[in-house]
Amino acid sequence: MRKVSSNLVNLMGFVKEFKSDYDGNDSSSTSSSSSSSLDGSTDSSGGNIKQLSSSAPTMTAQARTPEPPSPKATTKEDKLPTTSKARQKKFHRHFPTVDLDEKVLNYYSCALIGDILLQGHLYITKNYFAFYSNVFGYVTKLLIPLLTVEKITKERTAKIIPNAVGVVTSEDKHVFGSLMSRDNTFRLMIKVWDAARNSAMQNSLHVEEELLVSSCIHYLQFSTQ
């Protein structure tokens, strides 16, 4: 019994000694951990995590100033067409007897209908309907003063296709077919023809008034003698 009691006493002493050693190591570890947390953080793998310095530069967001759009390049499509000058030159080259002041209002690709179709262009000016054709060197010119026109009609090619306009004068009838837009051509021809007739009528009235005034003056002068 004494031996057993002695062994128990020795065992209790060993347990107390082990417990005191364990408590001392734990407190030392806690102190070391606290000190480590003050110096720098550690990640789960045991490495130190670098802390940001208080003097790190601050990033400032700046609004980006939009660049002015580059000027649009000038292309041929942006320029105004200069076909009017070329049209005037071509017309006066074909019809040199016409005054240079005569302006071409418009022109249309068409065909003069006769024994054969003569492909060419119909020129419309303030005082003329003019047609010019050059087929394999065979040149055809037709110059119709508007004051000689008696009637303008809508016609049909081969009595079926509504793509022609007729111009009737006191001497002949000319039919221009193969027009891309017969109605537009017809309207312009009527408008120009009416304007020419109205202008001629006004000029005629003005001349008659001048003649009447001149006759009255002459009569008064004669009667006072």
TrEMBL record:
A GO biological-process term: intracellular sterol transport
Source taxon at top rank: Eukaryota
GO cellular component: endoplasmic reticulum membrane; endoplasmic reticulum-plasma membrane contact site; plasma membrane
Gene Ontology molecular function: sterol binding; sterol transfer activity
Region: Disordered, residue numbers: 19-88
Every GRAM domain range: 89-156
Bias type Low complexity, positions: 25-47
Positions with biased composition (Polar residues): 48-63
Secretion signal, residue range per the UniProt entry: none
Classification via InterPro entries: Cholesterol_transport, GRAM, PH-like_dom_sf
SMART domains: GRAM
PANTHER family: GRAM DOMAIN CONTAINING 1B, ISOFORM E, GRAM DOMAIN-CONTAINING PROTEIN
Name of this protein: GRAM domain-containing protein 2B-like
Source organism of this protein record: Agrilus planipennis
This protein's encoding gene: LOC108743428
